[in-house]
Amino acid sequence: MDDIRCTARRLADEVLFPDAKRIDGLDAIPQEHFDALAGAGLFGASAPAAAGGLGLELPAMCSVTEELASGCLATAFVWIQHFRLLTTLAGGWTPSGSAGDWLTAACQGKLRGGVVLAGLIPGPPLLRATPVDGGWSSAPTRRSRQPSSSAWAPPPPHSCSYELINGDEVPMPL
């Protein structure tokens, strides 16, 4: 764990912090920040080592996150959103057959997840899930405006959960 934390501290000091003030005024975080995190294996930090991850437990993840956030909070904020996708893939909560290659790519930072928050607003649904061949598709309802998304361009896969009116269970779409 100490090696990983030292790596995170070095990245925070040498890559993230020198650019943090400029990033606060941008619409996007430079790709180089995420590439540096991927190069250090940090996109797979919480995934099991057998899946290509670092296998960090919660206390170690908190320490690594603290180090990265000390360098650039915006970068750490977007990076941490990736772990919902990683947890979904590592936990086997995906449609059959899709997790293996995606998990490896997610651990390497080649596949990066984000967060869409439009469905969390109280009231009538803002997102609608529709079955399609091989999985599910989601789209905003007429009531919603563009969903609020914090991600990279082009948007990465998002893990979503939906409340179902009829009580049917649906696999978590990606």
Task: List the main descriptive attributes of the protein structure presented here.
single chain; 174 residues; mainly alpha; Butyryl-Coa Dehydrogenase, subunit A, domain 1; two-stranded antiparallel sheet; two-stranded antiparallel ribbon; 40% helix; globular; disordered C terminus
What topology does this entry show?
Elements: H1 2-16, H2 20-23, H3 31-39, H4 58-71, H5 73-90, H6 99-108, E1 115-116, E2 127-132, E3 135-140, E4 149-150
Antiparallel strand pairs: 1-4, 2-3
Helix pairs in contact: 1-4, 4-5, 5-6
Please indicate the percent range of residues in DSSP E strands (runs of 2 or more). 5-15%
Largest sheet, if any? 2 strands, antiparallel
Assembly state of the chains shown? single chain
Mean pLDDT across the residues is 78
- Broad shape: globular
Tell me the distance between the termini: 31 Å
Element pattern in H and E: HHHHHHEEEE
- Secondary structure tally, helices: 6
CATH superfamily of the domain at 2-108: Acyl-CoA dehydrogenase/oxidase, N-terminal domain
- Identify the CATH architecture of the domain at 2-108: Orthogonal Bundle
Q: The CATH topology of the domain at 2-108, please? A: Butyryl-Coa Dehydrogenase, subunit A, domain 1
What ranges have pLDDT less than 50 throughout 5 or more consecutive residues? Answer: 162-167, 169-174
Number of strands: 4
Record the strand order, biggest sheet.
1-4
Estimated structural class: mainly alpha
The value of Rg in angstroms is 17 Å
- CATH hierarchy, class of the domain at 2-108: Mainly Alpha
Helix content: 40-55%
